Amino acid sequence: MAPTKAPDSSRRSDRSRRAIHEAALALVGEVGYQRTTIEGIAARAGVGKQTIYRWWPSKAAVLMEAFLGLAGRADEETGPRSDDAAQGIPDTGDLAADLKLVLRATVDELNDPALEAPTRALTAEGIVDAKLGAEFVAKLLDPQLALYVTRLRAAQEAGELRADADPRIALELLIGPLMHRWLLRTLPLTHAYADAIVDYTLGGLTPRP
């Protein structure tokens, strides 16, 4: 008789984690962050509450990990996103074109229904939960912003930007208006708007005689 293989606990755990991630993202999209509960996530994923609490201290922690996993899968399926630290922001020698490419990709991400609900939930909750807010910044925002700083510093070295321009402030001029429009939902978030932000920003940063 062939020996019976013992169940693979690691594979079972991976399946459970994926199910919990998918349940958390689905519930936030359907009922919102406030109405999403650990009990609801557990029921949707087909696991016990104790399984979730064994791995995460709160629903915010579940959603954070689920969102990071979702972003990683999006990279694998569609290629490098604007925040892909391994790729960075393109440097073709045309700063305006490179920034427009990245901001357009960011517009697409913010308008993606699969990403919008969890992104809004984490952004809002991070304002009132200092610990979650710090984690959100450290894991999601800072790696993206560092890429802009690197590209803008390279542009300074190439003489494309004023030598005295602060790259951190410059990137905020690029990202701030985009996020403001997205958060308030006042007007459509479009590629044309992203292009205009780049044009207006660089118009104030490029060297002048």
Automatic annotation (TrEMBL):
<dbReference type="Pfam" id="PF16859">
    <property type="entry name" value="TetR_C_11"/>
</dbReference>
<keyword id="KW-0805">Transcription regulation</keyword>
<protein>
    <submittedName>
        <fullName>TetR-family transcriptional regulator</fullName>
    </submittedName>
</protein>
<keyword id="KW-0238">DNA-binding</keyword>
<dbReference type="GO" id="GO:0000976">
    <property type="term" value="F:transcription cis-regulatory region binding"/>
</dbReference>
<keyword id="KW-0804">Transcription</keyword>
<dbReference type="Pfam" id="PF00440">
    <property type="entry name" value="TetR_N"/>
</dbReference>
<dbReference type="InterPro" id="IPR050109">
    <property type="entry name" value="HTH-type_TetR-like_transc_reg"/>
</dbReference>
<feature type="domain" description="HTH tetR-type">
    <location>
        <begin position="14"/>
        <end position="74"/>
    </location>
</feature>
<dbReference type="InterPro" id="IPR009057">
    <property type="entry name" value="Homeodomain-like_sf"/>
</dbReference>
<dbReference type="GO" id="GO:0003700">
    <property type="term" value="F:DNA-binding transcription factor activity"/>
</dbReference>
<dbReference type="InterPro" id="IPR036271">
    <property type="entry name" value="Tet_transcr_reg_TetR-rel_C_sf"/>
</dbReference>
<dbReference type="InterPro" id="IPR011075">
    <property type="entry name" value="TetR_C"/>
</dbReference>
<dbReference type="InterPro" id="IPR001647">
    <property type="entry name" value="HTH_TetR"/>
</dbReference>
<feature type="DNA-binding region" description="H-T-H motif">
    <location>
        <begin position="37"/>
        <end position="56"/>
    </location>
</feature>
